[in-house]
Specification:
alpha+beta; Alpha-Beta Plaits; cell cycle; 3 domains; cell division; single chain; Trigger factor, domain 2; 12 helices; 48% helix; Trigger_fac_ribosome-bd_bac
Length: 461
């Protein structure tokens, strides 16, 4: 077998492989001999069929098998002798083959780049830390109390915040439309759960009152036949109830499954703390990835970039068709969007290869315990179906691997953060919750606002 490198351009490699006809014949003879030992043909005892007959009957059938093995061996030889690391399955094309002649084929592939990670100790990051606002705990307690509110029938006109029990029939041009009728419906006035303007027209009404409520459905209403169109509802007030939130005390805590008000406050605090920590983690990770992207510029396999771009573009087209295109993409032509998303694809591939290299070189592993924890978290997302989720993942290796990849990435990120200089920066919880792009825009606008205020002050003087 002769393997000749014909192209070495960046990460691209191409080889010409020639398998001599003699080697193919030897492989064929060996395979025919295996068949001859067990083949059964009429008129011959097992193992006694003449080779000439075996060849006539089976040579054509096994030729594909022989050629496939020769191609695989030639491809593996080209890769292993040069200690190459393919980025994906090599592309093989048969150049020449005829019975009794040499087999010639080409092998084209892209290899993974050689990566030299930067000195992670040179990375300086700020990690935002926010105290849990006492007001948020109080607000959450208030919301819980409202969800456990009670109501009593009152003999007075309805006011905002009251619960009214109503019958209604929705009509357009005097004809009732499907889905616009209900009896004994409970509606909290001021909740804004109905069409804009509907609830306001019931304020001041009393039990027994019958009124006509005129509204216009919003342009974006889910039912396209009603969207943007006027309608009238014949409404009968059956009862008016005054709503009273539950007392914020131990009894409220027991209603939600906890022993005391202190335990409820503690649970709320833990939940808010987890949210804030997750946001802080997300932001410092984003800053780290930005620093890693700025610190590495190695070539990446074009086919991996193509695959990443294709996935992004497919999602973008689906979002555009569904009318949920990202606002930052609005108004841009396809050429601009493709340029931006190809750059994003290249960044993602480069960072993915870098993190994989760092993890491999530093023996970062995903343990079975890590997978079990991730599987439990995934199952919790489907209350009542946990057993089915466990069965699905345990019987589907690809699904289990989909859990492994993000765990590995997070562990590598943790490894790098341990080496980087990370300082905590106290911030308000509201600032921590701001989208990084939104915060950056505000920072950019701040000097302009300051200058405008100064100019206004100067003018006033």
């Amino acid at each position: 077998m002769q393997v000749t490198e014909t192209n070495a351009d960046g990460l691209k490699r191409e080889f010409k492989v020639v398998v001599p006809a003699g080697q193919l014949e030897t492989r064929t003879q060996d395979r025919l001999a295996e068949i001859a030992r067990t083949v059964k043909l009429p008129g011959f005892r097992p193992g006694k069929v003449p080779m000439k007959i075996v060849r006539q009957k089976y040579a054509a059938a096994i030729m594909g098998e022989v050629l496939e093995q020769a191609v695989n061996d030639g491809t593996n030889t080209a890769i292993t002798e040069r200690e190459l690391r393919p980025a994906a399955q090599p592309k093989v094309e048969i150049s020449s083959y005829a019975e009794g002649a040499d087999l010639e084929f080409t092998v084209a592939l892209e290899i993974l780049p050689e990566i030299t990670p930067m000195d992670f100790a040179t990375i300086s990051l700020e990690r935002e830390k926010a105290e849990i606002p006492a007001a948020e705990i109080d607000e959450t307690l208030k919301n819980i109390a409202e969800r456990n509110e009670s109501s009593d029938v009152v003999e007075r006109a309805a006011a905002s915040g009251d619960l009214v029990i109503i019958d209604f029939v929705g009509k357009q041009d005097g004809v009732a439309f499907p889905g616009g009728t209900a009896e004994g419906y409970s509606l909290k006035l001021g909740s804004n759960t109905f069409i804009p303007g509907f609830e306001d027209q019931l304020i001041g009404k009393s039990a027994g009152d019958v009124s006509v409520v005129s509204v216009t459905f919003p342009e974006g209403y889910g039912n396209a036949e009603l969207a943007g169109k006027p309608a009238e509802f014949d409404v009968t007030i059956k009862e008016v109830k005054a709503v009273k939130p539950a007392e914020i005390d131990d009894e409220l805590a027991k209603k939600v499954g906890l022993d005391s008000l202190d335990a409820l406050k503690g649970a709320i605090s833990e939940e808010i703390g987890r949210e804030l920590n997750a946001l802080a983690r997300s932001k410092v990770k984003r800053a780290l990835l930005d620093a890693l992207a700025a610190g590495h510029d190695f070539e990446v396999p074009s086919m991996m970039v193509d695959q990443e771009f294709d996935a992004i573009w497919k999602q973008l087209e689906a979002d555009r068709e569904a009318g949920r295109l990202d606002p930052s993409d609005e108004g841009k032509d396809d050429d601009t969007l493709k340029s931006e998303y190809r750059a994003l694809s290249e960044r993602r591939v480069r960072l993915g290869l870098l993190l994989a290299e760092v993890g491999q070189k530093n023996a970062v592993t995903v343990t079975q315990d890590d997978l079990n924890k991730a599987l439990i978290e995934e199952a919790r997302r489907y209350p009542g179906q946990e057993h089915m989720v466990f069965q699905y993942y345990q019987g589907n290796p690809d699904a289990m691997n989909s859990l492994r990849a993000p765990i590995f990435e997070e562990k590598v990120v943790d490894f790098i953060l341990e080496l980087a200089k990370v300082t905590d920066k106290p911030v308000a919880a509201a600032d921590l919750r701001k989208d990084p792009d939104e915060a950056a825009a505000e920072d950019e606008a701040a000097p302009k606002k300051k200058a405008a205020k100064k100019k206004a002050a100067d003018s006033a003087e």
